[in-house]
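=== Structure Prediction Worksheet ===
Name of assembly: unnamed complex
Input type: mixed (protein and possibly other molecules)
Chain count: two
Listed entries:
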Amino acid sequence: MNKKHFEASINLASLRKGSIREIVTKVKIPNRRFPTPIFIQDDNCFCAGYFLSYDMNLTGDLIFSLCKKAGWNQLSNFIADLVILYVDTKVGEINMMTGQTGKFPCFFSIEDDWVYISTSFANVRKSLKHIDINPSEVVDFIVWNQASFTTDNTIFKQIRQLPPATLLSIDCNLKITMIPLINRLSLLKESADPFPNQEDFTLTLLDRIEYVVKRYCQAVSSSTIATELSSGFDSSLVAYVLKNVLTNKLLAYTRYSPFMTEDTNLDTVNKFCQKHGITDCPIDISEFYPFSGISDAKKAKGEYFVTDHGFENHWLVNSLVAKGKETVLFTGHGGDEMYGIHDDTWIRFPIQFNYFSTLGLVNYGVNEILTNKGKDILIDRNRYSVKMYYPSQFSSSVVALGQLYFPIFWETGVWPLMPLADPRISEVVKRIPKSLRIPNKRHKMWGSRLDIFVKEQFVIKRGPDKLVQRFIDERRQLTIDTLKNSVLSELGLVNVEKILNDFANGDTEKYKNGGLPLFLQAVIQLELYLQKKL
Amino acid sequence: MFHPVLDQENNHTTIVCIPKDGSFHKISQLGYWCLKLLDNYPRSKQDQMIKYVAMIIHTSPWQIENKVRSFITKMVNMKVISEENE
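=== Predicted Assembly ===
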């Protein structure tokens, strides 16, 4: 496993005396093909990091010149996976920026005149002598599985992170600023009139998706390209366009299980593949539910923690896709948000939206997991009133996916491409005809395109709930053993005694209802991490 | 809920969540100031509210009286605020 991550340990004394050589020796940029590593230096400054651009030709020299003239907003507007460190010893300033696609996480901390920065949470944590748990972030992590809202905080008070499209600046006097680089109000600009009819809209959308997929293929030319494929509309739309763009054979990887036929039906996938000459590689993920292979999961996560329920099966699929060499994998992620982009409520009122959505979760079983103290922190209005919003043209769930699964992308060498989340496609979808602004719009929208889809796809799709819930029965003892040593109970955040009683008495069926399976698995993930390290 | 920075950027408009079905409802500037007053002073009377909002948005109380009363009735019906405020 490749444990090498981008990291920099910068001594502020070196920055004050302008010693670029001392600083550069403590910057590590492990080599890889995708995204491209960059290191450019002159007498007073250097920039280092990674980039992969999906629009114009972004080069290392262009990045360096933009850094030198503080062209951060311009840089952030590239449709590119990007993480850049720029240090100017003449000005005495460290700048770190992330691109808006959110694929690169970036954590940092400051202790004893040292600034630690890395794409690895574990690397930053290891460099610190002292850490404290941040209860506010912990409760968010439990109920939202890290996928709710882009934040600059982490579960430890001493470690912060850069949300997508954000500039961190630290000067030699330890003045720290974090600035969102995308203007939220610019995302609210009025779009052109809606398309007059469904046919014009779908034709324009297909053209635009093809244009974007071509750009993505050009960006990763000479690389092995594959795609994810379920029986839903989004991944099959991407696979269909990709097959038309590529001249050679297309391999599609399908995660399936008898526990989630409502999510992916293998017969339907087979029919779709036969129709378009796509080679399907089905992967049975039945035995890859949360905590299924605890040692494999530890290996996959390294020293990190991920509270998302799909980590194990994503690790399996990406390992099989990679077969030891760097690959790019197209996915249909972003489709849900793409079709809803005409409603700008979540951009206009992002924190209010987050607050009300969190309140809504209280009806999904939060009371069973969190104590009154934990719940009070979760829905404390004052906490939301001071939250900072970091906008991105990419939807928050796609951005979160990048941040969550980065360790998998990095370690397996499979870099995901999510064309449906691309702002160039959003431009078209904002003009969706009013007649299509309805629930399940995909069915009506693509109903006449049986040249693309097969009729079996026109069913209501559900999630992988039964697969996720397997851990409640199959990992009962692990749940009990882990909760017996609960750190979160000591903090007064989680109803551990009640959960332990239920599990000891076999009263576990209720944990399969509402949001409880997700909340509980997040608690156990966090416990496994915190108990090992504190 | 209120967010000083976003509220200002949004020209003092906001959203409320309808408890019955969890849907969101956009609130105009006039509605925003009514809710803000109730948030700070839950026992405010409608006449006080009309004067307060008129002062904030630089208009005469009589010009907004009907709008404020109708807004409060709507919010009570949606169960966003309690009947005591009607």
